[in-house]
Amino acid sequence: MPGVYVFAETSDGAPKPVALELLTKARSLGTTTAIALGPGASQAADAFAEHGLEAIAHQVVSHPFAASYTEYFAKISARAISSLQVIPDEAFERGLAAFERHCRNTPDRPIYEPVEVFLFSATPR
To answer: Could you tell me if 96 and 45 lie in one domain?
Structure first.
């Protein structure tokens, strides 16, 4: 399918401004397909529609997050996920201790997270 493809990054349930700028330029070049994925993609769908894009596909895919509960605990304890950074330190430490007990007592397996993937399409302007 010829046209322009744009990875439309979202944040906090809205398209990032640069994504909307890219989509505007892309539409001046030809038929445009936007790919939006991750947290907030479903909330951003209305904003994309307001900018003339039509949702043409939506699917939730399982994305590997960690190979084991040991790796899962290491990733969570590093507090690299932005939403974990807003939890007060004391509350985070209490929750982390409980999570560590859970990880030790749960049979090991890969951990997957659901990720929403949307495709939007727009005709040239």
So the answer is: no
- pLDDT tens track for 9-54: 887 778 888 888 888 888 888 888 889 887 778 888 888 888 888 8
Residues 76 and 41 in one domain: no
| CA separation for the pair 96, 82 (Å, rounded) | 16
Cα angle: 23, vertex 25, 30; to 5 degrees: 85
Structure-block tokens of residue 25: 């330029």
Say if residue 117 is in the same domain as residue 98: no
Q: Are 9 and 39 in contact (CB under 8 A)?
A: no
Same domain for 59 and 118?
A: yes
Range from 39-43, 82-86, 108-112 that averages highest in pLDDT: 108-112
Q: What does the DSSP 8-state code read for residue 83?
A: G
Entry pTM: 0.68
